[in-house]
Design brief:
With about 100 residues, this protein is α+β, with helices and mostly antiparallel strands. The protein has a single domain, classed as Ribosomal protein S16 (S16 Ribosomal Protein, Chain: A). It contains four helices and five strands. β1 and β2 form a beta hairpin.
Length: about 100
């Protein structure tokens, strides 16, 4: 394949759902984002604040419909910690 075709082909395959760190030192705040093959942010799905109390307060504003659309239709793969967060809030289930 030529470089142009390979670049266009890989654009549709490799999406990841990961955390994007913001905030200052000691007060980190994370955005849950979808990135493409070269780590450019495509969509923002929600926020994660590790300094809040309890898991329900740590996750702030997750767009569940958009998250499921990225997971099911576009085959985006979440990172390990994002998968753990989605599992804890009941969005996806891990099969043994």
């Amino acid at each position: 394949m030529t470089k142009k075709i390979k670049r266009q082909f890989s654009r549709y395959l490799n999406y990841k759902i990961r955390l994007f760190r913001t905030g200052r030192r000691g007060k980190s705040f994370y955005k849950i984002v979808v990135v493409n093959w070269n780590n450019r942010i495509v969509s923002q799905l929600g926020y994660y604040n590790p300094h809040a109390d309890g898991l329900t307060y740590k996750l702030i504003g997750l767009d569940k419909a958009a998250t499921l659309r990225w997971l099911v239709e576009k085959k985006a793969t979440p990172t390990y910690f994002v998968f753990f967060v989605f599992e804890k809030i009941g969005l996806i289930k891990y099969k043994n």
